[in-house]
Amino acid sequence: MLSQQAKKNTVLYLFILLWVVAVPVIAYVSSMDAKFSIVVFGGIIGLALAVISAMNFRLGYYIYIAVSMIVHVPERMAGTTMPVGVVMDLFLLLMLAGAIFDKKSKEKSNVAYFKDPLLLILYLYTAYLLIQFFNPNMLSIQGWFIFIRVYIRNFIFLFLTIKVLSDWSQIYKFFKFWLALSTAAALYGCLQQAVGLLPFERNYIAMNPDKFKTVMIQGRARIFSFMADPAAFGVLMACGAIIGTILLTAGQKIVSYPKKLLLLFIITVHLLALGFSGTRTAYVMLPVGLLLFFLVNLHNRNTLIAAAIFTFGMLAILFGPFYSSPTIIRIRTAFMGSQDESLSLRDVNRHNIQPYMYTHPIGGGVMTVGNDGVTYNPGHRLAGIQPDSGYLRAVLELGWIGLIITCIYTYMGIHYAVKNYFKEENELNRLLLIGIAAVMYAILVAQYAQEAAGLVESSIFLNAILGITIKVRYNLSTSK
């Protein structure tokens, strides 16, 4: 067996070798085709990262998260659609192989994989999805295979999270990494707002009518940073702002004043980026998530101060004399839904499809709703119907049986997080746990108006904090 230092040296040598090969190859290809050179460059870098992920699955875990966030940038630069999903599947399989053959992974885990209630509900949901293969309402099984592939990707990532984030020091490292990555995305989003979208970004949007409709609203571009779309960007900005605000209420012994200044900067850029994203659902997520935190921490002086400042800021935005800012106007429409025509249209669409829900207990089958239905199940009753809600999509595709399982699973996740919070004694740990609960609750509420949990970036974060929630539950129980 190679020593840890030998493994590190091997990884370093392979990385250097790939770069030595990459430089002349990229230079040669660039002289022929600029777009193709980007693909080659991305392929070589991806190969190097894949080798590293296979040899060190813990490092690969963070590489996977980072690549998931920025993988759309080379796609936009190349001006063409790239097999992003295949790349992510490859990374995940290499990490899984690394975790299986890692010497430390052979140690017995204290997580009750076959007794834990939350995991049992997850297994039940997985079995239900597999049974959907035989759903007679589907017109094609092609969409089912694609859906299951994505689901298995999230399934594996959840269990890798439990494996990688094995103790509180690893959990601290994860949140530091996530906030750093999220802040980088927020800063890039603010840059896009200040100077406008870059030429390759404008060209990519112009080439894709669906992207153009979601990005351009009333002649104004919604900011998406280096993520897939404004919706995913907005949801993650709301999550980052919630966690940053909660950490800001910590005592000085836990979070020093210099770190609090850094947190203030992080929160500020997240809030600015959230506003620029134009994602109304994400606007609602922020007060909803913080409300849960405020309710369980009313005894804390710092929490009361934060609640007062936040409430004053919200009132100023909603009722202040600001009428020229498109961002503020859009924020106001998020909290005054009765005055928004698009929300009224969504309610009408939901009412019209209700009879289908009652008569199809197992749903119409996965990938049969909206644009997915048009692509994979053309001619289906649900094809072309835009759900605009994670719960509505669940009940239409999986039936009310699937919706019940989904709701139980989301409830169990929040229940675990809150229960962990009240069991923990360390202040920083408690803040992170209530932050996880607040983010989960915010996403749960956001699912009513948008498929917030189904976005690639948000699903990665959600599965990561779910894995932390499960792991912490057993760390607490064994430490007593």
TrEMBL record:
Localization: Membrane
Membrane topology designation: Multi-pass membrane protein
Alphabetic keyword roster: Ligase, Membrane, Transmembrane, Transmembrane helix
Annotated O-antigen ligase-related domain residues: 271-406
Signal sequence annotation: none
Source species taxonomy: Bacteria, Pseudomonadati, Bacteroidota, Chitinophagia, Chitinophagales
GO MF terms, alphabetically ordered: ligase activity
Entry keyword Cell wall biogenesis/degradation: no
Organism: Chitinophaga filiformis
Residues annotated as transmembrane: 12-30, 36-52, 80-101, 113-131, 143-165, 177-200, 231-249, 261-276, 305-323, 398-418, 430-449
Domain of life, source organism: Bacteria
Protein name, per record: O-antigen ligase family protein
InterPro entries: O-antigen_ligase-rel_domated, WaaL-like
Keyword hit for Metal-binding: no
Pfam families xref list: Wzy_C
